[in-house]
Amino acid sequence: MQNFDYMTPTRLIFGKNCITQLPEVMTQFGRKVLLTYGGGSIKKIGLYDKVKELLPDFEIVELSGIQPNPKYDPSVLDGVKLCKENDIDVILAVGGGSVLDCSKAIAAGAKYDGDPWDLISYKVKAKAALPIVDIITLAATGSEYDPGGVISRTETNDKIGYVDPLLYPAVSFLDPTYTFTVSKKQTAAGCADAMNHIMEQYFCEDSTILNDGFMEAGLKSLMINAKKCLENPEDYTARAEMMLTCTYGCNRIYALGNSPSGWPCHGMEHALSAYYDITHGEGLAIITPRWMKHILSDKTADRFVKYGVNVFGIDSSLDKYEIAEKAIQATYDFFLSIGIPMHLKEVGIDESRIEEMAHHVAENEGLENAWVPLLEKDIAEIFTASL
Amino acid sequence: MQNFDYMTPTRLIFGKNCITQLPEVMTQFGRKVLLTYGGGSIKKIGLYDKVKELLPDFEIVELSGIQPNPKYDPSVLDGVKLCKENDIDVILAVGGGSVLDCSKAIAAGAKYDGDPWDLISYKVKAKAALPIVDIITLAATGSEYDPGGVISRTETNDKIGYVDPLLYPAVSFLDPTYTFTVSKKQTAAGCADAMNHIMEQYFCEDSTILNDGFMEAGLKSLMINAKKCLENPEDYTARAEMMLTCTYGCNRIYALGNSPSGWPCHGMEHALSAYYDITHGEGLAIITPRWMKHILSDKTADRFVKYGVNVFGIDSSLDKYEIAEKAIQATYDFFLSIGIPMHLKEVGIDESRIEEMAHHVAENEGLENAWVPLLEKDIAEIFTASL
Question: A16 CB near a chain B CB, below 8 Å?
């Protein structure tokens, strides 16, 4: 086991109708609120009106139109400007991971005098950030329980994971009923994103009985509950369990004390969605089984055996490579079964920019330090195998 | 899934030599320290000297001699007095769960003008508490990651679990090497305590795939690693994994969203160790299989099947009562195999006060609200079966 230093100061308020506690929670932080959201789905489900109704005594400034793969320009820059102009006390992010990720960058930028990109690109360490409260409407990223966000800068094809302990949300509201209207496509992509968060941590040199069992349970929970959610989008129990399983995804709690993995699939997928703006969870689902095949070797085979036997129930008496290959195929088949397009070409990516993307990943993501190191050549091979 | 509201503000600093960070951590809270500890084992392992060496610039007042099943009088009362007299800024608890539990009651009492028993007995809600830093030297209670402590008041045979969110330690240092010298008896009792924390949460009406897998992994981790620790007390990996598995015990993270269980074994054991001052983990181990037998019924059998199949690998094709009975026997056999005396008579308890203890539990522990309600008669039966 590795040494670690862990703390999550976020309060999770979970369950049906939990946002009735919103006024009491918001009052702790002040009266001037930046309300951030995306494209209007929160209006469709009545959540926008509900929030306004709950907060009649607050001064609310709005930033809407935050996109998936949230953009530095205009969203982060606009948000920072609004915070400064209106002397905002607290950000209330309502939506999925993208809205919350964007809000985290805004929270740090609002307390910084220079160009917020200095912070996101780690040129300058933030000294403070506005408090963030969120109401999450998508089970996927786990941003509601982690200190990071991913921000895209279109002109440079940068997609950066910006992480700082200052960015833990103060309070996250998780009402599974707000995920009832999430589309089949986004439900599946959210499941794949969360599964990948677990897999990225599972495949490492050194884990424990405790963490392995926790992560295997997380993967089984996501697979079983995603299918239930797709069959019956209003299955409260399935939506609720998916939500909590996703929430732990990037919090480190699944793997405290494990050796570092390097999060290779996220490193590679960032390029795909930076260059092509595809759905993050779909990009991850497409890459993951190809990455698995690429790294299968004597060094990694035992880990794949554990994964195959405990997650998919593959017969443990088989040859270890046979188990590993069956496990990789089962991973692919599961993603396919929930409707994810499993080839890059199906999401509009062809071979034309693979070399460029592989070069970008190799230069920026540090995957030479992953559990199984990935160099530019490896990354290009994985992309090509994913076509 | 049930609604919940969860937050753990404790920072965990985990691993070999982690206490080199102690000075930096303590500085955040002030210079006047109440150092609390037990009977001197921290001197034997050099930890007392190490702490003193690390904190030359701090004013340290000491409270030593805190006993297992820590006492209101003199320990809590003496500690509160020392804090008030010396205007203490922070408590540094060094030892096992008893030292930390006692320190929590002191932390609250130090900020209260009246009799600290008002707080512990929930007559008055604490408004503030001193910050607590701990260095834990025993893998058992999980007090280092929870907001509660158990305090005994000898003259009334009260043993009360005092819980308040103000009592989360600010920082817990967990260096597994400090548990290398823990005796076989205490290693086994710590394992039983932590296993029982998980079982208390596992046996309930409504759980999830995620929580069940997490808890089953916790139980397996404890059983496998306890055996390794008993064979080789300096097995770092086994001590480390036991330590973290124990740490989660009473934090609620193992079972967020589960329906309440009522913690019946703890309710019953509190009387045993209040009346007879036995080792808490041993008391729990003795009661647990008898309680399991007592509550086995059509209502609970499926839960025992899951437990038996997933924790002990019992053949799932057997009849469900057969699986349940095998699981209960396996629980008993495991405790016996790690050297725990499995009869109350072996720890000095005979039938003479069973009725009195059962009455005390029925009056004070609310076990009529447990998942399987326990009335005075049930409690007496479980005690009698444990003789």
Answer: yes
